[in-house]
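Subject: Protein record for review, amino acid sequence with backbone structure tokens
Why sent: The fold of this protein is of interest and is recorded here as tokens.
Enclosed: The protein record, placed directly beneath this head.
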Amino acid sequence: MSESETPELTSGPAESVAVGKTTGKGRVFLVSYPKVIFLYPTLITSIICALVMWLMGDTSAPAAPPAESNAPAVAVDADTAESAPEAEPRISSGENIAHWCARAFLVVLGLNMVVISFEFPRTTSLTWFFAISTFAIAIWFLFTVNSSLAPAVLHGLLSIQPVASASFYLIFSGILLVLFVAVLISRRMDYWEVRGNELLHHHGVLSNMERFSAPNLRIDKEITDLFEYMLLRSGRLIIHPRNESRAIVLENVLGIDRKEEQITQMLGALQVRVREADE
């Protein structure tokens, strides 16, 4: 190591000098989001269902009552009426699509609510996977043994015919969009910024700021929910600033792998060089 690379020390014990040289981006922004952002699959499904119902002419709307006719009633023989078969109600293709749209919306909404209601760590998710696989094998074996059971179950499920209008999907989508916009605006007033030599906390309407020392900063990454990580690559980031007794916990940081890599590269560029004092 040449003399120009390290500062000269004339007396005293060994000293360490931190060189504030950074590579890549000069700062990294960290934002903690609420769990409502994981409802975006439901929002997309609701918008698609609204478009489908609108293009179909909203067949879920109640039909107009039949107009009264002034034509004289025709007498029908009682024996003929009893022998005539009852006409089965027919479901048009538009009504069938409306039912499938409602089913898809309810399924996606239910799965989304499960994701934001419970935590699924990696070990727990693996346990659930084997449990669901075992249950699926048992159901398949039951249907194989009793061939008449599967059609009966399928008929029972299809007999449930939920339906919603295009207005319902549009109102639901509008509510979620308003919530998402409100979340984005609120996050602009509460976020963290990591620089090469300091950690900044921006918060408040007037952008109040707290400063923490960035050298010797320790960061822990946790994937608390496997499904949330699959949806938005989110996770928990725990920051341990120097000379601070309490750790900073940021929940639901999006793109957590990329953020961790950027912070590691930035803080790793702070080189510490040691030189023994000349005797």
